[in-house]
Design goal:
alpha+beta, elongated, 33% helix, eleven-stranded mixed sheet, single chain, five-stranded mixed sheet, 613 residues, 13 helices
Length: 613
């Protein structure tokens, strides 16, 4: 039994204390495997009087026994009666799933008091096999470690039935008996009677709080007809289930991810085309529009592809963009002839302007995000139309996301089902199996994002555009920037689709005489009011020759200079992207609308708690 002190609450009672002068245990093994245990506890109380005590004995797997019965208690000649009255001389027994509790009450006590408990332990013998070295065991924690007071002396006695004696070690013939106090066998003296039926364990020094005393005796299996205890059978089954479950879980932990990775390796990679592409290409390799190129390269129709469409249409003369005094950008439709436009471009113009020819960017807040899914699907349709993919990349990712979600559901159901079906001792198998399946589901979700593939034609086209992207990324290494100003506006739509717009603008903002886009009119520049057909004129000579202002000359008319001009252009692109993907605050997410950048037989029984107050 485990012993604990019930601490009093009053200040005066804080001087109450006790210790054990003796804590003796006698264990008698019956022919049927039950054990009759009698504990004699000699306590010494001091301070304020004590009036009650309690004790618990662990049951089931926690205590290595099936049940505790026939509980009796006496104090000298006084036999306590079982009752719930809490009157002196009575005790009460309560049962829970893994312990039996005894509460007893006595007249106010000081000095030495002796209490004797007796009870029957059912299923307390660990049943072994006929294998050499195996046997049945009594393995009992006579005094657990969490007793709150010093135990000065203790003797544990185990009595075996007639004709039963402990097994002997094969090598030296000594008995298979063991007493262990405080984790050290040197603190316990073990004795075996001449006929071997009586084994005693004598504690050689006081047992302090936190120290336990355990005893073990092993005798040959089959001498007594002892059935396997229920708790042991459950644990043995749990060990079997555990080994099988852990093996399957380990297989799933390794096999699941390997299967997913193998599937990606064979089905999720673009084909090898054998096409030899230069390190870089100084001009677009085909007439694909920037948004389609951006979608092809990363297999995602995202916000930068939508913004590249705006810049591309502006660069081609369909839209102009200006900034008013309120720092609000205004889009103007300067060419409503949609001949030759791709379906997604026509849809973009319709979504931005509706029936108008001018639209403030602020008017699109919370109103454009619901247009994005359709534009996105139309860009995927462009890839299908061009023969770059066999299936929409978005549908491929969605399919794998659904599979991953389904596997997560199966993992959750498997966890609940396995925990309900398996023995309590093997419930961890359900956790392991579910974790393994959950890991596979997670990997499916991650790998699924990379499962879209291209056709041979699509892979070749991507390789060419990757070379062009490298050119844009490192243009200063390939071109004389002083002579490359005309490329700024020309390739800005592609830089935007590649996500290079900020660095692209920054590169050219430091290059003198780089023309600013004809379609962009920042607020605060008074000499150039932009728009198509409204260029500035040179003042030299008698004739006026149309010319486009450069970034640096345009910046000279603005507070903040060249940096302000380039920052303004970058800010326009950023604010347009933010506004177009914005959703009302009450909606979920609040922003982008879908776009984004075995049994061992070695544990001891017994245990519990006791206290006094």
């Amino acid at each position: 039994m485990l012993v604990a002190l019930l601490s009093p609450s009053s200040a005066a009672a804080q001087t109450k204390s006790f210790y054990w002068e003796r804590f003796d245990v006698e264990m008698t093994l019956l022919e049927n495997g039950d054990m009759v245990i009698e504990e004699t506890q000699v306590l010494n109380f001091s301070g304020e009087p004590f009036t009650f005590g309690y004790g618990t004995i662990l049951t089931g797997s926690a205590g290595n026994n099936d049940n505790i019965t026939d509980i009796q208690l006496r104090e000298g000649d006084l036999v306590y009666q079982e009752s719930s009255s809490n009157a002196p001389g009575t005790f009460e027994v309560s049962h829970s799933s893994n312990e039996v509790r005894i509460d007893w009450y006595f007249e106010p006590a000081l000095g030495q008091r002796t209490y004797t408990f007796s009870y029957v332990v059912q299923g307390g013998v660990i049943v072994g096999t006929l294998d050499e070295g195996s046997g049945d065991q009594i393995f009992w924690k006579a005094i657990p470690s969490d007793h709150p007071g010093r135990i000065q002396n203790s003797t544990i006695t185990i009595r075996l039935p007639e004709g039963v004696e402990p097994q002997r070690y094969i090598d030296d013939g000594t008995y298979l008996v063991e007493g262990l106090a405080a984790g050290n066998s040197n603190l316990v003296e073990t004795g075996v009677s001449e006929n071997g039926r009586i084994i005693t364990y004598t504690m050689l020094e006081p047992l302090m709080p936190g120290q336990a005393l355990e005893v073990r005796v092993q005798f040959p299996h089959g001498i007594l007809d002892i059935p396997t205890p229920s708790w042991q059978a459950r644990q043995q089954n749990a060990d079997v289930y555990g080994l099988i479950g852990l093996a399957l879980s380990g297989l799933l932990f390794v096999g699941g991810p390997l299967t997913v990775l193998g599937f990606w390796y064979t089905r999720g990679r673009d084909p090898e085309t054998g096409l030899i592409v230069p390190e870089y290409l100084p001009e677009p390799p085909s007439n694909l529009r920037p948004a389609v190129v951006g979608t092809l390269v990363d297999e995602k129709a995202d916000m930068r592809d939508i913004i590249s469409t705006l810049v591309d249409l502006a660069q081609r003369g369909y839209i102009s963009i200006s900034e008013n005094k309120a720092k609000n950008h205004v889009f103007t439709l300067v060419n409503d002839d949609k001949t030759g436009l791709r379906p997604y471009e026509t849809q973009f113009i319709r979504d931005v302007f509706g029936n108008k020819t001018e639209r403030k960017l602020s008017e699109l807040r919370y109103k454009f995000a619901n247009k994005l899914p359709k534009l996105r699907n139309m860009l995927y349709d462009e890839l299908l139309h061009e023969g770059f993919v066999d299936r929409s990349p978005d549908k491929v990712r969605t399919t794998y996301a659904v599979i991953a979600a389904g596997l997560f559901v199966v993992a959750a159901v498997a966890f609940i089902g396995l925990v309900a079906v398996l023995p309590e001792e093997a419930a961890y198998v359900g956790c392991c199996a579910s974790m393994a399946l959950g890991l596979t589901a997670l990997l499916v979700g991650v790998v699924g994002r990379h499962m879209p593939t291209k056709t041979n034609k699509g892979a070749e086209e991507k390789a060419k555009w990757d070379a062009f992207k490298k050119y844009l990324q490192n243009i200063e290494a390939y071109e004389d920037m002083a002579q490359a100003g005309a490329l700024f506006e020309k390739y800005l739509p592609y830089a935007t689709a590649f996500g290079l717009d900020r660095s692209w603008i920054r590169k050219f903002s430091s290059v003198p005489h780089t023309p600013i886009p004809r379609w962009y009119v920042p607020y605060g520049y008074g000499h150039y009011h932009g728009g198509y057909g409204r260029p500035t004129t040179s003042s030299s000579g008698s004739g006026s020759t149309p010319s486009l202002p450069s970034l640096d000359s345009a910046a000279s008319g603005m507070a903040g200079g060249l940096e302000s001009m380039s920052n303004g252009l970058t800010r326009m692109l950023n604010s347009t992207a933010t506004t177009m993907r914005s959703t009302p605050p009450s909606s979920s997410g609040g922003s982008s609308g879908g776009f984004s950048g075995g049994f061992s037989g070695g544990s001891s029984g017994g245990g519990g708690s006791r206290g006094f107050g």
